[in-house]
Design goal:
9 helices, Tetracycline Repressor, domain 2, mainly alpha, 2 domains
């Protein structure tokens, strides 16, 4: 029995080490060479695994990269819960902006560009961004449940505005993603939450939440 337990533990550890090596290799390769030169084979070679190992876990090289980006997001952008919308919103936006630096900016541009051409990558990108949006939505809906107003557009508009600014600046590089920029955005959005409601006739129906 002890030997069986040892073998099971070793197997799980080996799989996790291989997965981590693959994610690290993908990030390194996409950061160092054009996306067209990165293949499952080159990632496998750097990670020291076989291609079939990769294909058991991911359908494409971009799926590997997006999982690596997802793990980074989870590690550096927690779900704030201070009991105050103002504090939580600033904490979330600041952590999100701070997480986006090189080589992450270049990697996200690569994947977003590919998502415009490849429907499968587009689907993966929607899932990737949806997970980050869901975290902010949780923060906002918790505040609303406490009785704090979310403003005329509600959670939908606030989520769109945070990630709209984020992605606009990632893709075009036309503005900073600094702590002070995050604070300014959070303060502007907080002021918006205190605005008077729009007339019902001016509200745009939303087909669904993501």
């Amino acid at each position: 029995m002890p030997r069986t337990a040892d073998r099971q533990h070793t197997g799980r550890q080996r799989n996790e080490e291989a997965r981590r090596a693959i994610l690290d290799a993908a990030v390194h390769q996409f950061a160092e060479r054009p996306a067209a030169e990165v293949t499952v084979a080159t990632i496998a070679a750097e990670a020291g695994v076989g291609r079939q190992t990769i294909y058991r876990w991911w359908p494409t090289k971009f799926a590997i990269l997006l999982e690596a980006m997802t793990e980074l997001g989870r590690a550096v952008v927690a779900v704030p819960d201070s009991g105050s919308l103002a504090a939580d919103l600033e904490a979330f936006v600041t952590a999100t902006f701070s997480a986006v630096k090189e080589p992450t900016i270049s990697l996200l541009r690569v994947v977003m560009g590919e998502a415009q051409r490849d429907p499968q990558v587009h689907r993966l990108m929607v899932e990737f961004t949806g997970r980050r949006r869901a975290v902010l939505r949780e923060v906002l809906e918790r505040a609303e449940a406490r009785g704090e107003p979310l403003g005329p557009g509600g959670a939908d508009l606030l989520v769109d505005q945070v990630f709209g600014v984020l992605w606009y600046r990632i893709l075009l590089g036309n503005g900073p993603l600094t702590p002070s920029a995050a604070r300014e955005l959070a303060e502007a959005l907080l002021a918006q939450t205190r605005a008077l409601p729009w007339p019902a006739s001016e509200r745009t129906p939303r087909p669904g939440k993501c």
